[in-house]
Design goal:
single chain; alpha+beta; Chloramphenicol Acetyltransferase; 3 domains; six-stranded mixed beta sheet; CAT-like_dom_sf
Length: 472
């Protein structure tokens, strides 16, 4: 999470660098801060102590004052195609001054991005965290002011709204949510120790300005265009239901299974009679294991399909629909437990390979042909990877996951296949479920959300009606 960074490599073979040292106590280090694209090194410690809140604030105020105007938006290069970024990275690092900046950013504990937009709605907040603000003339100023390869970037807007962007290849949402929750709870506590000192140290942040070669100047133009094209290709919708986990638990149902069945019913109705193009991915944590991260819960089952079909079949009784729903959620809970115990199948299709004595991890995180990257030259990929059933079963048209923080008004990610959807949801609130759906603009995103709304209402009505019948 801290003191590390992703580094672009050739042919999609990125790697991670870490500057954490065994036995460190947290009494050394720095933070990378971005404002109007200008990069600053913010000192975090002095004389074997962490700086006080006042000392941090003074440095940040200086950064605001001395970053007026616009500086070269080098950060947007990292948001480009990884192979293009690898080429631009090498050009950037060929300058000694730039190499020092890269080292400072990569070794920083984390990054803080002080951004000029002021989001005021869930969609605006989500988009500004996801990719940043785009100006009227199409400049992606958000991505210029970030370093998307850092695992943790705190993003603070001019209206004091804030959030976090996480680089997903080296870590997952669970630890970053915990980080944010702990920090916010600590700051809210009146007893929090802000580290006041009688004579604050005269510490000043250090500006580090890029040397921009003609090659990098051209690369920035291309990266701006690529970022703008990608951002403008994306659609997003957001919804809060009228009930939450309190009502769901009162019906004796797992809130996560309930939320997933909403998605399954909505997606089937969206497709109509058309077949599914792929599967539904739900992340399960495997952090109980050493270096465990996630496994895939395969949500779709014969039981879920049978229940979904029953919901629009007038010949199926309310009671029978409820029985089918119970069977579907029971199956889902079983899949979730199996995946959480590391007994899923999908992570076994990932692979790692050694190159030049470095550990190189295949970066196509969602491509289950990833083990092909580890084949030696001339070796043929196993037939499994070209099997049509395998290809369909590992094509995630629905990429879903749930985290929860009472401090997060929004969160999400993009779709992972061109004709798919990213479905982020929260089930932790007593009075509402929360859904964010992302997709490409050519997909019927708004219609899918309309079906989510209807499915949430229909499942509630199914249980309310069956509950009333049972009482009678």
């Amino acid at each position: 999470m801290f003191d590390c960074c992703r580094v672009p490599g050739p042919e999609g073979l990125d790697w991670s660098v870490t500057y954490a040292k065994q036995g460190e106590t947290g009494l050394s280090g720095h933070i990378a801060v971005f404002r109007n694209n200008r990069v600053w090194k913010l000192e975090a410690t002095k004389d074997d102590r962490i700086l006080s809140t006042e000392e941090f604030q003074k440095q940040i105020e200086q950064i605001y004052r001395e970053s007026e105007g616009q500086y070269p938006g080098i950060g947007v290069l990292g948001a480009n195609n990884r192979d293009v970024w690898a080429k631009d990275y090498n050009e950037l690092a060929s300058s000694g001054e730039n190499s020092d900046i890269l080292h400072m950013i990569q070794s920083a504990a984390f990054a803080i991005c002080l951004e000029s937009s002021s989001p005021s709605s869930p969609i605006a907040h989500s988009r500004d965290l996801w990719h940043g603000h785009i100006t009227a003339d199409g400049v992606p100023i958000g991505l210029r002011n970030r370093w998307v390869d850092k695992p943790v970037q705190f993003i603070v807007f001019d209206n004091a709204e804030a959030g976090i962007m996480g680089e997903h290849s080296v870590m997952d949402g669970t630890p970053t949510v915990r980080l944010c929750d702990d920090v916010l709870e600590a700051l809210h506590n009146p007893a929090f120790d802000h580290g006041s000192v009688s004579s604050p140290a005269d510490i000043r942040p250090t500006p580090m300005d890029w040397q921009v070669s003609p090659v990098i100047k051209d690369a920035l133009v291309q990266a701006d265009a690529a970022a703008r094209s990608l951002i403008e290709s994306q659609e997003m919708t957001f919804h809060l239901t009228s009930y939450g986990k309190a009502a769901i638990k009162a019906f004796g149902v797992s809130p996560d299974s309930w939320a997933q069945m909403i998605i399954q019913l909505a997606y089937r109705r969206l497709l109509g009679t058309a077949p599914r193009a792929g599967g539904t991915y739900e992340a399960a944590t495997t952090r109980r294991f050493y270096k465990g991260r996630t496994e895939a819960i395969r949500v779709v089952s014969s039981e879920s399909d049978a229940w979904v079909a029953s919901m629009d079949d007038s010949s199926v009784s309310l009671h029978e629909r409820k029985k089918l729903f119970d069977a579907a959620t029971k199956k889902h809970i079983g899949y979730a437990k199996t995946a959480g115990m590391g007994q899923g199948i999908d992570r076994h299709f990932f692979g790692k390979c050694g190159r030049n004595a470095q550990q190189v991890t295949c970066t196509k995180t969602w491509d289950y042909a990833g083990m092909k990257k580890c084949l030696k030259e001339g070796e043929e990929a196993p037939a499994l990877f070209s099997d049509p059933v395998f290809q369909s079963a590992t094509y995630w048209v629905l990429s879903t996951s749930a985290i929860f923080s009472k401090h997060f008004p929004v969160y999400g990610w993009g779709e992972v296949v061109p004709d798919g959807y990213g479905v982020a949801y929260m089930t932790g609130y007593d009075d509402r479920l929360q859904y964010t759906i992302t997709s490409r603009k050519e997909m019927p995103n708004e219609q899918f959300m309309t079906e989510i709304v209807k499915a949430a209402e229909d499942i509630y009505a199914l249980h309310a009606g069956e509950s009333a019948k049972s009482k009678l």
